[in-house]
Amino acid sequence: MPIDLAPDTRIGVSDHLQLEAGDGVATGKTLVVAPGTGGWTVTEDAGALALLAHLDANGPASLSDLYALGDPIARVTHDTVRELFDRGLLELDQRVRGTSATRPAPGLELISPKAAHNSYPVLGIFHVHNWCNLACTYCYTIEEGIPREQLSAEVMCKAVDELVEMPTRFTSFEFHGGEPTMAMPAIREVTAHAQRVYARAGKEVRFSIQTNAYNLSPQVCRFLADNDFSVRVSLDGTPGTHDEFRVDHAGKGSYRGVVRGIRRLQELGIAVHAVCVVHAGTADRIVEMYDSMAALDVASVRFLPVFTTGKAGLEQWLTGDRYLAAYLGVVRHVARLGRSGAPSVPLANLTAGELGSLRSFKREYMCMRNPCGAGVNMITVDTNGDLYPCEEMVGKPEFVIGNLRSETIRDVLDTSPVVRQLRERHVEEIDECAKCTWKQMCHGGCVHKSYTHFKRLDRESEHCSYYKGVYRELIWLDVKEPGSWEALSPSGARR
Questions:
Q1: 213 — alpha (psi -120 to 50), left (phi > 0) or beta?
Q2: Contact in structure between 413 and 361 (CB atoms under 8 Å)
Q3: pLDDT at 115 (0 to 100)
Q4: Number of helices (H) and strands (E), helices first, in the chain?
Q5: Mean pLDDT value across the chain
Q6: What is the CATH number of domain 123-415?
């Protein structure tokens, strides 16, 4: 509902503002960011800029006192004041808008979107087993010399029985590996069990699978289609870039077999979402890789920088600056395609992550929340029943929070010191983040990657320079080339 403004309405800035002047076609426009709230705008309104600058320098004042300063502030309309408040740049009568992680100044009331989920898991991930029909050169889940182990259907069903009792509206179950389709009997049993218990509870249950799709059989594809699985397929771009790194145990490339599996899935109406790892050996070919995957009619493409755990080493790792340069290349490419009306495929992580954070104070993507989803909205079960806060933490003993064979998920989440540390991690208490313009956008990045790189939870993302650059670049991209955001993510509406 509209905000009432009166002559005695007290107005201030929500935080010390950061300003950046545009160049080129954006000359005359200014980007204004409130780091503490995640608020921002781009404007050429001289009155609005003068108002913000005055309040930033002199502190709060009444509306009548501000108008008494004369032009250009006197020309600022009430609608402009309301818009600046809605965008998290102004405080009005001791109220301010921001993300749920915003820490307002004493005496201010924070108005933030209701959390998408409460503090109970809505995502249960099963590491079904620890082996695979491929031997990718940078795999982070399969270690040589480790005995084969499979998570039993009995333990997975126990997780289902416990998660259905959580005070949540739905649960998503994701089957991971290794290559999960090598354990289809267990997946079939758990899927059927989950459908029964969630139907009895009157709750929604969803299923997803992360697969390499290598030579998927028609029977597996039919099962995934019949049970409405969301399917993500590991696919590394072109035949050449894929086959160089995603090989079978004889060292032969797997591209043809993966495409065969993708086609079988698509023939049954399954939307295939491609997940593509980017590393030092492929970063310069990212646009070519995108085009190759888009030509396969995948539903989306998710680029992920390589992990420095498992088989990958620092020689394959990408710095934040290098990943930013590569990723912006494909972002601009996809935006050009969309603006021209040419067919394009959405960049899934951009839509849910970076653009989502720019469009709204609400953080739908759990990896961009503070705290993130680890131990809050997700739980992972490893092959031996060990419980982890997040799928990426599997294999690190320091992140084991319990074992499902002998403990319950709820008890573990309520008592684990690791979970408590993860839930208490706050972007304002990370030194490098606290002083950053974009801290309420990325919220410090992935906590697991921070730990892997720095061996501490209270550190910034290993790709900090990526986040410091990507939000600014996305904003100016849409200013200089209007329609870019809509081209990149047609479903969203800008805040």
A1: left
A2: no
A3: 60
A4: 19, 17
A5: 93
A6: 3.20.20.70
Name the one residue in this structure whose structure tokens are 């795999």. Answer: 139
Q: What is the dihedral of CA 388, 390, 391, 394, to 10 degrees?
A: -40
Measured between alpha carbons, how far is residue 135 from residues 260, 261, 304 in Å? 18, 17, 18
Q: Which H helix or E strand runs over 21?
A: strand 18-21
Question: Edge-to-edge, what's the strand order for the sheet holding 109-111?
Answer: 61-62, 10-13, 90-92, 95-97, 109-111
- Domain locations in the chain as residue ranges: 10-111, 123-415
In 3-state terms the chain splits into helix, strand, coil percentages (rounded to 5) of 40, 15, 40
> Which residue, 212, 173, 165, is CA-closest to 190?
173
Position 364 confidence tier, pLDDT thresholds 50, 70, 90: confident
The Cα–Cα gap between 192 and 188 comes to: 6
The mean per-residue pLDDT over the stretch 197-225 comes to 98
* Residue 215 to residue 295: CA distance in whole angstroms: 19
User: Angle 492-227-377 (CA atoms, 0-180°, nearest 5)?
Assistant: 55
CB burial readout 213-235, b (16+ within 10 A) else e: bbbbeeebbebbbeeebbbbbbb
φ/ψ bin of 194: left (φ > 0), alpha (ψ from -120 to 50), beta (otherwise): alpha
Question: Which residues pair with residue 127 across a beta bridge?
Answer: 176
The helix (run of H) or strand (run of E) holding residue 126 is: strand 123-127
The amino acid that residue 345 corresponds to is V
Residue 42's H or E segment, with its range, is strand 39-43
Q: Cβ(179)–Cβ(134) under 8 Å? A: yes
Max CA separation in the chain (angstroms): 79
Output 403-408 pairs: Cβ under 8 A, ≥24 positions apart: 404/155, 404/158, 404/159, 405/155, 408/162
DSSP result, 319-364: -HHHHHHHHHHHHHHHHHHHHHT-----BHHIIIIIHHHHH-S---
Strand partners, 40: 33
- What's the pLDDT tens digit per position in 426-450? 999 999 999 999 999 999 999 988 9
- State the angle between helix axes of 218-226 and 255-267 in degrees (0 to 180), rounded to the nearest 10: 40
Q: Please give the C-alpha separations between residue 224 and each of 217, 268, 380, in angstroms, as whole numbers.
A: 11, 9, 21
Between β-strands 30-34 and 39-43, what pairing exists: parallel, antiparallel or unpaired? antiparallel
Q: Which of 474, 478, 485, 471 is nearest to 38 (CA)?
A: 471
CA distances to 199, 207, 381 from 194, rounded to whole Å, are 8, 10, 16
Strand locations in 218-293, DSSP E? 230-234, 272-278
| 464 in Cβ contact with 432 (< 8 Å) | yes
127 within 8 A of 177, measured Cβ to Cβ = yes
Beta bridge partners of 273: 232, 300
Across the range 190-215, mean pLDDT stands at 98
